[in-house]
Structure formats: structure tokens, C-alpha cells
Write a structure and sequence with these properties.
The chain has 2 domains: about 240 residues, Type I PLP-dependent aspartate aminotransferase-like (Major domain) (Aspartate Aminotransferase, domain 2, 3-Layer(aba) Sandwich); about 130 residues, Aspartate Aminotransferase, domain 1, CATH 3.90.1150. Helices cover about 35% and strands about 15% of the residues. It is built from 13 helices and 12 strands. Strand 4, helix 6 and strand 5 form a beta-alpha-beta unit. It is globular.
Length: about 375
């Protein structure tokens, strides 16, 4: 089945009682049982919900996986994965990552004795060198947030399998429309479904997809036992969003390319971070493992001052100053004070995230209007 068809029909089955083409929102907390222990597959809504079941089926289909699990947020999905580990276990992860993930790792799980080793994962050799007898899991973002670094998933997967580790890929920036990490050897794919999967900035949700039934059972136990599950209306909204994922991502990619090249040619812009440029260090890998380069872009001004960056950030009209990404509307963001403020400044600077970096989530508005908006703001 082709992707465009898959996004529309995955997880969707006409309601057997009414024929409704859209999955109903099963707004219930519990289910009547015919006798003790005899039910229709549903007992209590923290454990199962038919709307969530449909979404989890869809998540698996669009990521070319066998099992999907939905969570109350992307961070909740990440939290569930790390709960597979024990005190003393070690995790290798990228030194450029979403600030909320970094905060969860350093402020929550380090207190329980889990060790996180941050390396430049754009080099598989760096990943290999960081493996110790205590390593149990590798956590990747590609493209990374916010510097758009690219990691060769297949190369890291080979390392992971050689050492019998779990490889997790945060696929939020690419979405299943542009990249499918399970096909490249990953064990688990994580999404902040709040972003491109939902696509309309109206829901908070996370997702995990995997092929291994043992992993699925362990993660389902955590999902059920810890309770970070999404409500049925949230599941309905993400199901609805997935139906237009294909056409939206085409528009995000087209607009992203237009904006990236326009910024690169702008006399007041010093650097643009976008993996679609042929001179990007990860271009060859991105071209191999992605179907498009996406609508996420970061850039720096030649006047490398925080004051000038903040002036630009506060001067756009179509690009709304806000956290998050992946909606149909364009957003502009200041990672150092917003999405990545939880990372200590010295760590941000060491990894190349300057105080003046600006991040764009390019929406699907008319590209001419977006260019005009940025042109007025940059001056």
C-alpha cells in the first residue's frame, strides 16, 4: 500500500454498530463485563480504549512496525522507554537533543542511578567508542533539535545489534512521511505526536512503535502500570491528523526548501542549519535515509547578538513566537530561552547552540507570504 493511502486508512474501520466512517470517541472510563473476567476485550480505560486501539494500530502501520503504543506526551513516551532500564545501566545519546529530553534524563533518571553519555552521534565511531559493558540503550535524534545534525541510523543499528543494545530513534522532526527508522534497524521509534502527526497544534501526545513483541509487552506493562495514557479525544485528534500527514509533509518540505535557500542568500544571515543543502555535513546520509528534508530550519544572523535575534523573533507576524513545531502554521522560536533553556549554557555553547540561534517551524502557508514576513523582520 502506498504511503498516501496508508495515512488515510491506517487504523480506520467503519463503526460496526452504526457504519460511521470515522472512529468514534469512546468517552468512557470502564466497560461492562458479562461475567467476572469475561469482557469484549476492554476492562478499564487506562489499560485499553477503542479509540486508542485504532490510533495505536495506525501508528504501527505508518511506521512500518507491528506494534504501536500511545502516551499522554512525547516526554511520557520517552519516560516509558527509560523505565526499561535498571540503576547502573548506561545510555548513549546525542549531544544535541530536545531540551525536555535532556531535562528528563539529567534531572529525573540520573537520580535513580542511570548514566547518560552524550556524544556526537553523527560519527558512528563515536557511538562505538562510548559503548561499555554497562551500556543498554542508544537514544538518537535525527535530524537533531535544533542544529539539524544527521546520524546514520543503519550504521548505529549495526553497532547496537553487535552489542545487543536497544536502539531508539526520536523521529519527531522527520515524521513517518520522511523517515522510517525501523526499516533501518532501530528497535523503537518515538514521536512527539503533538507535532507533525497531530499537525494542528491542538493536542499533546506521544507514541512508540516497535516490532519486537517482548519489547511491546514490557512497554505496554509500563504504559498500563504508570498510567501516562492519552484520552480518547486526544487519540481521535491524532488519528484525524495522520490522515493528512502525506499532503502536509509535502507542503512543509516545499516551503522549508524555499525558506532555507532564501535565508542562505540573505546578506544579514551568517549560517543556516538545514540538511537539504549539499554542503551540509549530513547531506549524503539524509539523502539516503530520508524522503525529504522537512520544514525545520535554524539560522544565525551575521550580527551575532542576542538583542538582534530577539528583535527578529518579536518582529514577525505570520511566524508566531511560540514553542513546539509541526503545525500547519509557522512558528519561530529562541531555543536558548525556550525549548532548550533547561540545558546549561556551557553545555549548549559547547555543542554549538548559540544564544542567538533562531529556530523555525515552517508551516504550509503560501511561501511568498512567509518570505515577506521574514524579510520585514530581518530587515
Amino acid at each position: 500500500m502506498k504511503s498516501a493511502t496508508k495515512y488515510i486508512h491506517a487504523g480506520s474501520h467503519p463503526d460496526p454498530s452504526t457504519g460511521a466512517i470515522m472512529t468514534p470517541v469512546y468517552q468512557t472510563s470502564t466497560y461492562v463485563q458479562e461475567a467476572p473476567g469475561v469482557n469484549k476485550g476492554y476492562e478499564y480505560a487506562r489499560s485499553q480504549n477503542p479509540t486508542r486501539t485504532a490510533l495505536e494500530e495506525a501508528l504501527a502501520v505508518i511506521e512500518n512496525g507491528k506494534f504501536g503504543l500511545a502516551f499522554s506526551s512525547g516526554v511520557a513516551a520517552t519516560d516509558a522507554v527509560i523505565k526499561l532500564l535498571n540503576p547502573g545501566d548506561e545510555v548513549i545519546c546525542a549531544n544535541d537533543m530536545y531540551g525536555g529530553t535532556y531535562r528528563l534524563f539529567t534531572k529525573v533518571f540520573e537520580r535513580f542511578g542511570i548514566v547518560f553519555r552524550y556524544v556526537d552521534t553523527t560519527s558512528a565511531a563515536n557511538v562505538e567508542a562510548a559503548v561499555t559493558p554497562k551500556t543498554k540503550l542508544i537514544w538518537l535524534e535525527t535530524p537533531t533539535n535544533p542544529l539539524m545534525n544527521i546520524t546514520d541510523i543503519a550504521s548505529v543499528a549495526a553497532i547496537s545489534k553487535a552489542h545487543k543494545l536497544i536502539l531508539v530513534v526520536d523521529n519527531t522532526f522527520a515524521s513517518p512521511a520522511l523517515q522510517n527508522p525501523l526499516d533501518l534497524g532501530a528497535d523503537i521509534v518515538m514521536h512527539s505526536a503533538t507535532k507533525y502527526l497531530g499537525g494542528h497544534s491542538d493536542v499533546i501526545q506521544g507514541a512508540l512503535v516497535m516490532n519486537d513483541v517482548e519489547l511491546r509487552d514490557k512497554l505496554y506493562f509500563i504504559q498500563k502500570s504508570c498510567g501516562a495514557v492519552p484520552g480518547p479525544m486526544d487519540c481521535f485528534l491524532v488519528l484525524r491528523g495522520i490522515k493528512t500527514l502525506g499532503v502536509r509533509m509535502k507542503a512543509h518540505c516545499e516551503n522549508g526548501k524555499r525558506i532555507a535557500h532564501w535565508l542562505k542568500d540573505h546578506p544579514k544571515v551568517s549560517k543556516v542549519y538545514w540538511p537539504g543543502f549539499e554542503d551540509h555535513a549530513g547531506y549524503a546520509v539524509a539523502s539516503k535515509q530520508m524522503k525529504g528534508f522537512g520544514g525545520m530550519i535554524s539560522f544565525e544572523l551575521k550580527n551575532d547578538s542576542v538583542e538582534e535575534a530577539k528583535r527578529v523573533l518579536s518582529s514577525t507576524h505570520l511566524f508566531s513566537l511560540a514553542e513546539s513545531l509541526g503545525g500547519v502554521e509557522s512558528l519561530i522560536n529562541h531555543p536558548a530561552s525556550m525549548t532548550h533553556a533547561s540545558i546549561p549554557r556551557e553545555e549548549r555553547i559547547k555543542n554549538g547552540l548559540s544564544d542567538s540561534l533562531i529556530r523555525l517551524s515552517v508551516g504550509i502557508e503560501d511561501a511568498d507570504d512567509l518570505v515577506e514576513d521574514l524579510a520585514k523582520a530581518i530587515g
